Amino acid sequence: MWKLLPVCLLVSCAVNDQQQRAGGGNQPDQAGIVRQVELPLASSAASIHGQPAKKTFQRQGVEGWLDEAGAWQLEAEVDHGRLRCATYETGIQLGRGTPACADAEWLTGVEYATRLRHCNSATRLHAGGGVFPQAADRFEEISCVRVLVRCEGAC
Q: Disulfide: which of 18, 80, 105, 123 matches 118 by Cβ 3.0-4.6 Å?
């Protein structure tokens, strides 16, 4: 009897997964935003030896920077609370607004930098970056960043 238990559990998971997909309600295979946070950008030290000036952002588990050339870097801890696997992506969007970034005007689209698979309730560090070419001309007015985490699979 105990030998059949893993098989029954596997079949049960497969049936539940098929029912969720066919039901149309909670589509586990569609990507959706699972975390979003707006953060103010703080000016860092002046440029040194020809290095571009930078603005930084930070909150527990999230940090990064944007430089005057439009290059950016992001590090974010992403939690996965399920045993079954899901794929997470992290990205940012730039804007301008109040110091709290509550009603920011978003000046760029979202650029995603990482794509990692999480399983077994794992927390993983996502680190990546990119370039917003249009940010170079608007560096002084950019004061906010939106950090997004989207998930596809068993989120």
A: 80
